[in-house]
Amino acid sequence: MEAIINRDKRTNSGVLLNLAPRSASLQRLADGTDATPVVDLLESFGHSSWPTLNEADSQSLVVCSLHRNVEDLTALLWLLDEGLPVVLVDAANTGQAAIAARNLGATHIYSRGEIAPSGVSTDTAVHRDRRVILPTSGSSGRPKYVSMGAGAIVGNALSVAKKLGLNSQDVGMTTLTPAYSYGLSNLLAHLLVGARLVVSSSSVTAGEFWDSVENGGVTSLAFAAGSAPMVLAAMKRGRDLSGVRRIMFAGGAVPKELVSPLYELCGARGIDLRLMYGQTETGPRISISPPGLAREKWGSCGRPIPGVSLEIVDDLGRPVPNGVVGRIVAKTDYNMSGYVASACDLFEPRECKASRPTGDRGSIDDDGLLWLVGRTDDVVKISGYRVDLGDVRDIARQLLGPEVAAHATRDRLYVCVKVSNQSSSLTSINSVIADRIGIPREHVSLVMVDDIPRSVAGKVDTLRLESLIHRSRTGAHKEA
After folding, report:
1. Residue 320 burial (CB < 10 Å; 0-12/13-18/19+)?
2. Tens digit of pLDDT for each residue in 438-478?
3. pTM for the model
4. In angstroms, rounded to a whole number, what is the distance separating the alpha carbons of residues 432 and 265?
5. Segment holding 469, helix H or strand E
C-alpha cells in the first residue's frame, strides 16, 4: 500500500510535537501520480476510546505496535500531537508490545487501528522528560528502552531538516518503521517543515518500492546502511531516479567498498549522497556529510547538525588533536533523558547530561569532518592478543565479500560468512586473516551460515549471531 501523508505546519500550542494540524488530511496515490484527499485524520481516529484515553493525560502510557503503513503512522502522529506518552515497538517483533506493556506498566496498547486497555495493573505516571520511549539494542543485540523528551525529538528532527535543506517542496518516503529511531527521525524531519511523505510497506529489494519512488515524485530517500548493496544494485539497473535530490544512509557504517561506487553513481545522476551518524540515545542524528565532498573525503560522516558539538577524547577523557583516533563524545540537549527498564523509571525527570560518550571511536580532521573507526567495544583481547573487530570485518569483506560478521570470545575469533560466499580455500583464508591481525591461526574459525542475522536497522544481530556460532560448535553449521 502506498499513500502520501500531507501535513501543514502550525504555531506552537503546547502539545507534544506541535506538528499535526486539526485539518490534516490523509491522501492516497491515485493512478500512481495524482494525490486525492480521502479522509480527515480526526474522523479516521474518532473512536470512543481515544477521548477517554486523552482525559487520563500523563497517567496513560500507550505501547504502539507499528507497521509501516498509513493507518499506523497517522495513529502515531495523532497520539504524539495529543501529548500522550508512547512506547514504540516494531509490529514485526511478535509479542514485543505485550512484553513492553508488562515491563513498563503501560495502560493501553495500540495495534492495527485499535486501542485497548493493556490489562496491566499499574500506577504509571510518566514524567514530561520521558514522553517518547524507543527500543534500542545499540550494537549489543540486547534490547533496552531509551526515553526522550519532546524538545529533544523535535529539536533534533528540525536540525536534521535544516542540515539536509528539506522544505515544503520535498517528498520523502518511509523506508523504515517509526519504531526505529532513524525511521521516526525521517518521518518528523519531513513533516515538521511541511514536506509530504510517500508511505510504502514494500521492501527496498522489491520492484514495487522503486515504482513508488518514481511515481510518487520522491525527492529524498533515507536508508539504513545495511540496505546499501540493494540501493546500489537498483541504481545499476537503471531505475529512474530523476526526481531524487538526496539519498541518505545511517544506522551503521556503509561498507567501505561501496562508498565510492555510491558517490560515483549519485554524482552522475545529480543526487547528493549524505552519510549520517547517530544513535537513538542522541535524538537520534549527530552529524551529516555535506554535499559536494572532494573524493578524498568520501566516507566521512560530515559535521555536527545544528545544536550538536563533537569532541574526541582519549581513554582518560582528555581531548586529542585533529586526526587522532579516540572516543567520540556528543554534546547536545538532544541527548536522551535516560534508559528505562521498568515503570519506576518513568517517574524520574531527565537524568542524563548534555555531554555523552557515544561508545564509538573516530577522529575529526582539519576540515571538521568526522571519521568513524568502530565501536569502543570492538577492541577485544583474545588469549592475550589485542584484536580490533572492525579491522577483522574489513579484511573478511576483502576476502569473502560484503556478507560477513565477526565475533570474539576469550580464546577464539569467529568470522561468519554467508554460505553463498564461501571459498574453496577456507583454511588459507583463516591463515590470511590470522596473519593480518597478528594472532595464531588456531584462534581463528570461519563459520558458514545461511544468512548474516540483522536487525530492522540493518545492524548485525549479536544475540542471533552468537546462537549461530554456538550451533556451529555443536555441528549444526560447518566450521573451518
Report:
1. middle
2. 888 888 888 888 888 877 666 788 788 888 888 876 654 45
3. 0.76
4. 33
5. helix 462-473
